[in-house]
Amino acid sequence: MDSLPYEILGEIMIFLEAKDVFQKFCLVSKYFYGVTKSTYHLTQLISHKLHICRPMSLTLPHAIKILKKTTRISKIRPIEFLGFATTGGVDGDIASNWVGSLFFKNSPGYCSRERKDNINCAGVLSSTQNGLLSDGRSEVRDEIARIIRNNHYARQLIGNDRIGKKSDPLNYIEEMIFRHIYINVPEILIHRNANQQTAHEFMFHLRELHNSLVNTELILASFRKREDDAYYLVRPINYENGDKGKNLFCAKYVEFSRSGEFTCPVEAFMVFISDYYIDIESSEFSVYNDLKSSSDIDTLVSINENVPRPYELFESKLHEYRLFNWTKNPLKPLLWGKFRKKGGKKIEAKLRDNFSGAYLYVKLLYPLDLMRESGDMSEFTNIDARYVGLKGVEIRI
């Protein structure tokens, strides 16, 4: 075997599991060990195993670090995304219903405009944007940041790794948490030892801060791609960093939630990823419109050879879903899911393949109409959803 060229051994190595490369393959001989210390062959292994399409320039220590990080369960974390685009508009043109909330786990969620199904929404890997989607600096935002960062309950919701430092401006996640707490449980922000008068004064202070925030919140009309279209909204981002930067995610799990007191919670949906941004009005998304059942997926696969093969159907009392094989297509479907009953709130699935990229998308296919039993007399349905996200690791190539 030592007579085989390095190139052949390198090709063999990329079909092995990373742990087998370092625990078995490298022990065969000094010649084999030399292959495992080749930056070129380790880069090929990473590209093959993680399905990375971008060019990589790695040092040997960095390549080994990526392989270890992506194979250790202990390194798996929720991956942070910033939602920036939707074809479904925003319910009531209220900024707190903006699609950005859909990509943040502890937010109130996203509510679309009425009379629209097959809604596509997009999020970008947060670390590619370098704070671009932060809404600037002001005394009001600094005061909110101070309150949030010194509140134990708020810190638990956000997570210590996502709390800004003392000198940092209020970040997007902290703002969402402040809005959520103020609307639902503002008393949590009051110091437990405060007397009644102090508590009353602080509640008044919170109301002033919240009102100031609302007065400077997102102007949704400025996100319209077409002046007369209130549905197709895109918040500007740094596409260069997203499409060609060195930060990527490697996804291991997909999560979706519709928990909350929604009148039109989503009933069926799909989740996708991509390496570079794909316009959410692209025909690549419309191929998957109106998939109401598992059999619809089978029909689609049989008539469209570009649709990747799905795995078998998973069924439970509350929901069902199908995962998809990895594909070379730019738009890569991860999961089709459907809630079977009103009680179904969340789907979490472990992916069968590694999926790497910089963008996350969700297609909200159609809603469950609970308007009448909720006392909502609106004439038309919209679609509501709480959260879509991935768990895995972030890497820098």
Automatic annotation (TrEMBL):
Give the matching CDD domains.
Answer: F-box_SF
- Which InterPro entries does the entry link to? F-box-like_dom_sf, F-box_dom
Q: Which residues form the F-box domain?
A: 1-45
Highest taxon, organism lineage: Eukaryota
Name used for this protein in its record: F-box domain-containing protein
